[in-house]
Amino acid sequence: MRILYIAEIVGKAGIFALKQGLPELKRRYTPDFIIAGADGATGGNGLGRNHAIYLRKLGVHVLTMGECSFYKKDLVENIEKMYHVLRPSNLNADAPGYGSRVYKIGDRKIAVAVLLGQSGFLRTHGDNPVTFLPILAERLKQETPFIVVDFHAQTSAEKKTLFAVADGLCSAVVGSHSRVQTADETILPGRTAVLTDAGRTGSIDSVGGNDAQTCINEYLTGIPDWAHEAWDRLEVQGAIIETDEKGKAVDIARVRLPIKQEKET
Where does residue 212 rank: exposed (0-12), middle (13-18), buried (19+ CB within 10 A)? Predict the structure, then answer.
């Protein structure tokens, strides 16, 4: 199976970049299944209901979330009905929505799950992902050997630790949240593909897809501000993962596709 993971979409610029670039990515990689990080798709923080629907129409099979899962009220009110949107599975059991699901691809099935890290998140807290993952993977393995986990975490140390735990339990674990693509894609001894961070989809000349000057002003003044998205040098980033028929990873490669089109008017 060939799985395309689209790195975190940041704002309208990221949505525009994905709209322009996804047809080329499909032609280039012929993926069987497409996952996209959408924790910052609406205004750089969270995901609105309309954007969730639009991204699905563009051809993304599953949208993964992180600590911003419940930032947009209209998504919270509808997330139970939106089977293609996944919030972290290690949140409180009373949290709305789904943390993992099994999806059909022809006569095969693929399981997708999201885990939230514990370091650095002040407003959203999850159970320990190190103890949560083996139980989750064992449950999903009852339905399919193809298991992909989006680990939305702040620190590379926590991501690397979870990778070691996940080796042999999942087809792939892709790190998200930092919005900076790392160059450490590899297949671990147990045939699990990992990448510390897939990067971002949106402006590359920016601070995590957001306007640099807004971020500079926030550091200079100490006054919190919702950063404004940037539109300079758009790019779709991510990873392409290939597995054998038993769900074991055989290849992982980073994806970077520059988008030359101008901003929509």
Answer: middle
d(CA 125, CA 123): 7
Nearest C-alpha neighbor of 90 from the set 59, 126, 123? 126
Domain boundaries, the chain: 2-259
pLDDT tens string 115-154: 999 988 877 889 999 999 999 999 999 999 999 999 999 9
Share of the chain above pLDDT 90, in %: 87
pTM, full prediction: 0.96
Sign of torsion over alpha carbons 134, 158, 55, 86: positive
CATH class of the region 2-259: alpha beta
CA 65, 66, 72, 76 torsion: positive or negative?
Answer: positive
Identity of residue 179: R
